[in-house]
UniProtKB/TrEMBL annotation:
A single BP term in Gene Ontology: ATP synthesis coupled electron transport
The enzyme's E.C. designation: 7.1.1.2
Organism: Astrotoma agassizii
Protein name: NADH-ubiquinone oxidoreductase chain 4
GO molecular function, one term: NADH dehydrogenase (ubiquinone) activity
Length: 454
């Protein structure tokens, strides 16, 4: 982890030294080497609980896939932003690249730390660079309002978590994840346990805590949307998994009865909201809320299948949602609109883009053998095993998810295009490489899903 942190810091220093004409190539090359370093450093050795322990940092089978996912998507997001920032000044481009690398440094520390206080600091430190990305390089003037929503939702929900961690430290004198794994002696009341998890429910987010997410996604630049959907939202799921190991008694006896039903019902309602959306990015953002609501319901069951399914869903959804936002940006750069009803006839304009839309739409609805279906199968099995009444909600959720996922493809690829929608150029090599980098990990998980399962 220290090696990755120093290498990422070196990328920031290099971006300010090299001339402008070499900025994008050098940043992508160095961040690609960061991927190789992460793959060599982290392994999936489940015979021991923690690996590479040093300076309150370590890896295991839960955080290793998330760290590799974070490193994998950094060169992809930089490559996706080249066309958007090509006309900006050299200083603006340097700041943009530096903010993205700062996010990855904070994510590496957050995912790999074994101390919950350091985890909280990293959890909140991603707020500042993400806020700057949204408010400085956002699409429209509403980006300021989106920044307000993002800040206040995050800060208000994080204060109870911080107070709860201080109370836990005062009671146990230890917040180390590695040490407390074998000696689980956290005896706290239900109110304090609820305060511990509410910040993660907002960050994921689930239905009812999600109002900031569509605004942030719609106004953020393509890199901001990709990082937010693929990586930052997974911090909430990771924190919920870690805390559920220690709060299992409170969750099992008192909290999960309400949380599972609420999340399943929220997933169904969010799927219905997706059917009413006219903005392409807003539809993709609401679909993330639907998927994450069902994932939280699975984590609340506290079973091995649920933990495995949540990890698979987070990795697969991170790749798929990032690809969908990138596809939406490809069309937005050419047409200047994200409105579904007038963004028709892609099959008459592009040669290969409809194929990419079909692949990632099928992945979003969980079509076998894509890894999304593996994670959702395990998650739904855990939820139904908890109580058979959830079968009705899960059936509605699966049906509605399939409908709005295919709706995206049908709206964009059916019918004739309008006269003012004159787009004649196909996607270029840079965009094709970006889409290919999203599909390759999914193919690897199809062949061997055990590489990210505990």
């Amino acid at each position: 982890m220290i090696t990755l942190t120093f290498w990422a810091t070196g990328i920031i220093i290099t971006s300010w030294i090299i001339p402008r004409r070499n900025l994008w190539e050098t940043s992508i090359l160095q961040s690609s080497i960061l991927i190789l370093c992460s793959c060599f450093l982290f392994n999936n050795n489940t015979s021991t609980l923690w690996n590479n322990l040093s300076m309150n940092m370590g890896t295991d089978s839960i955080n290793s896939p998330l760290i590799i996912l974070s490193c994998w998507l950094i060169p992809v997001t930089i490559n996706a932003s080249i066309n958007y920032l090509n006309n900006n000044s050299h200083i603006d481009n340097n700041i943009f690249v530096s903010l993205i690398i700062i996010i990855i440094i904070v994510l590496i520390i957050t995912f790999s730390t074994t101390n919950l206080i350091i985890f909280f600091l990293g959890f909140e430190s991603t707020l500042i660079p993400t806020l700057i990305l949204i408010t400085r390089w956002g699409m429209n003037k509403e980006r300021i309002e989106a920044g307000y929503f993002f800040v206040f939702y995050t800060l208000i929900s994080s204060l109870p978590l911080f107070i709860s961690l201080l109370i836990l430290y005062n009671n146990t004198s230890n917040l180390n994840l590695a040490l407390n794994y074998w000696s689980n002696n956290w005896e706290i009341n239900n109110i304090l346990a609820s305060f511990c998890i509410i910040a993660f429910l907002v960050k994921i987010p689930i239905f009812g805590f999600h109002l900031w997410l569509p605004k942030a996604h719609v106004e953020a630049p393509v890199a901001g949307s990709m990082i937010l959907a693929a990586i930052l939202l997974k911090m909430g799921g990771y924190g919920l998994i870690r805390l559920s190991n220690f709060l299992w008694l409170n969750i099992n006896l008192n909290i999960n009865n309400f949380l599972i039903i609420f999340c399943c019902w929220g997933g169904v309602l969010t799927s219905l909201i997706c059917l009413t959306q006219t903005d392409l990015k807003a539809l993709i953002a609401y679909s993330s809320v639907s998927h994450m609501s069902f994932m939280v319901a699975a984590i609340s069951t506290n079973t091995n299948w649920a933990i495995n399914s949540s990890i698979i869903i987070m990795i697969a959804h991170g790749l798929v949602s990032s690809a969908l936002f990138f596809l939406a940006n490809i069309f937005y750069e050419r047409s200047g609109t994200r409105t579904l009803i007038i963004s028709r006839g892609l099959k008459n304009i592009f040669n290969t883009l409809p194929i990419w839309w079909l692949i990632f739409s099928c992945a979003n609805l969980g079509l076998p053998p894509l890894p999304n279906s593996i994670g959702e199968l395990l998650a739904f099995s855990s939820i139904i095993n908890w109580n058979n009444i959830t079968y009705i909600l899960l059936t509605l959720g699966i049906t509605l998810t399939s409908i709005f996922s295919l709706t995206i493809y049908l709206y964009l690829n059916s019918g004739n295009r309008f006269n003012w929608n004159n787009i004649n150029n196909n996607i270029n090599e840079r965009e094709s490489i970006n889409l290919l980098l999203h599909i390759l990990p999914l193919l690897l998980l199809i062949i061997n899903p055990n590489i990210i399962m505990n």
